[in-house]
Amino acid sequence: MAEYILHKVDGRAKRGTFKTVHGDIETPVFMNVATVGAIKGAVSTDDLHQIDTQVVLSNTYHLHVRTGDETIKELGGLHKFMVWDKPILTDSGGFQVFSLADLRKIKEEGVTFRSHIDGHKIFMGPEESMQIQSNLGSTIAMAFDECPNALAEYDYVKNSVARTYRWLVRCKKKMAELNAREDTVNKNQCLFGINQGAIYEDLRIENARRISELDLDGYAVGGLAVGESHEQMYHILDVVVPYLPQNKPTYLMGVGTPQNILEAVDRGIDFFDCVYPSRNGRHGHVYTNKGKRNLFNARYEKDMRPIEEGCHCPACRTYSRAYIHHLLKAKEMLGLRLCVLHNLYFYNHLMEQIRNAIDAGEYATFKKNKLDELQEVSREEK
User: Fold this and answer.
1) Domains, the chain, ordered by start
2) Contact indicator for 348, 30 with CB cutoff of 8 Å
3) Which of 13, 33, 71, 275 is least surrounded by Cβ atoms within 10 Å, i.e. has the fewest?
4) What digits encode the pLDDT tens for the residues 85-123?
5) Is-annotated flag, keyword Glycosyltransferase (predicted)?
6) In what order do the strands lie in the sheet with 111-114?
7) Is 339 annotated in some ligand binding site?
8) pLDDT at residue 49 tops 60
9) Is 92 one of the annotated binding-site residues?
10) pTM, whole model, 2 decimals?
11) Is 278 assigned a ligand-binding role in the annotation?
């Protein structure tokens, strides 16, 4: 079993180290999203080392439908396949229960999907999800769950949360069985459970209490950033995080903007993932400590400064805003690649700044100043 060492608590912000078979993860941490075993934007694992990436997230469903988890196991597991020696978290396929709503049918046993690639039928339940993630050999496997819309009807969510808990019990049992097998890629694979309950406080709290009793390696808060407001999301974190074990990693799934991260750290979250930095980078939107810039904007046509002065990412060390603007307008792949590298570097180093602020016992001041600073470009570009 992995070990989580809690070094410091500043308010409710946590500073820890999660020790795993693939190396230590310093938290709070942002997980760079490598859905199919690669970051979109022509980013290699060598690049990931260069921009100080600690951990990547890959997608169980997508790797199952293409290239296939059994093939990846035969080739030595996902770490060997993508040439990455640090931790990997795999999500369970549960989010596809939400995102492929028109292509699936949910029952107690699990979920029947239609592949988004060729339409063929796929069945995935707790046991199947654990088997796929075991084949991939990821460091951290996520429990199989249903992610209902945050604004779904109360009775629907209540039934969904109860079923997700039953699925979690089955995931834990199957994971123990798989980790004991001789041919398992990673016999030290961790399991994180997922708290659900939409925006209903009582369902969230009851579920958090129940899953905490299972003594898992970590706990996620799922089912947020799927239709509710930021204020509702922060309120649910205020309500539910105190009922999750403080001595285990707490992961807010699929979130988010730098502002979201700053607010969620303040509420006790220490793992994050989101496609924003890579997706926005592919559209010429770059994050800086003063806010987000759109490098397609004509104002950057003759701007020979780097994306952010003082930044040490591969883009800023060498190239100007003007050149990247030119590449983007010319539809050259190098432009989006440089933007993605910058954004991932920015997120990874924002987390480092957050860790340093918690270590110093100054997180509240840091958060206030950073939130204000992040608005500067917005005011400038109006």
Assistant:
1) 3-274 (3.20.20.105), 283-381 (no CATH)
2) yes
3) 71
4) 999 999 987 666 555 556 567 889 888 877 777 777 888
5) yes
6) 104-106, 111-114, 121-124
7) no
8) yes
9) yes
10) 0.96
11) no
Q: Both tokens of residue 275?
A: 């496609």
CB neighbourhood size of 326 (10 A):
16
Which residues 6+ apart lie within 8 Å of 40 measured at CB? Answer: 278, 279, 282, 340
Mean pLDDT for the stretch of residues 265-278: 97
To which residue do tokens 């941490």 refer?
A: 29
Annotated active-site positions, please? 91, 273
Tokens 């990821």 sit at which residue?
Answer: 138
Q: List Cβ neighbours of 153 (8 Å cut-off, separation of 6 or more).
A: none
Mean pLDDT of 161-181: 98
| Residue 349 structure tokens | 């180093």
User: Does 93 appear as a known binding residue?
Assistant: yes
Confidence of residue 225 (pLDDT cuts 50, 70, 90): confident
d(CA 199, CA 182): 43
Q: Report the distance separating Cα 260 and Cα 244, nearest Å.
A: 20
Q: How many CA atoms lie within 13 A of 254 on its CB side?
A: 17
Give yes or no for a contact between 314 and 326, defined as CB atoms under 8 angstroms apart: no
Q: Does residue 348 surpass a pLDDT of 90? A: yes
Give which of 287, 72, 34, 60 is closest to 192, Cα–Cα.
Answer: 60
Helix crossing, 333-359 with 258-265: angle to 10°?
Answer: 20
**What's the rounded Cα separation, in Å, for the pair 139 and 15?**
20
190 is in an annotated binding site: no
- In the block, tokens 């049992």 appear at 173
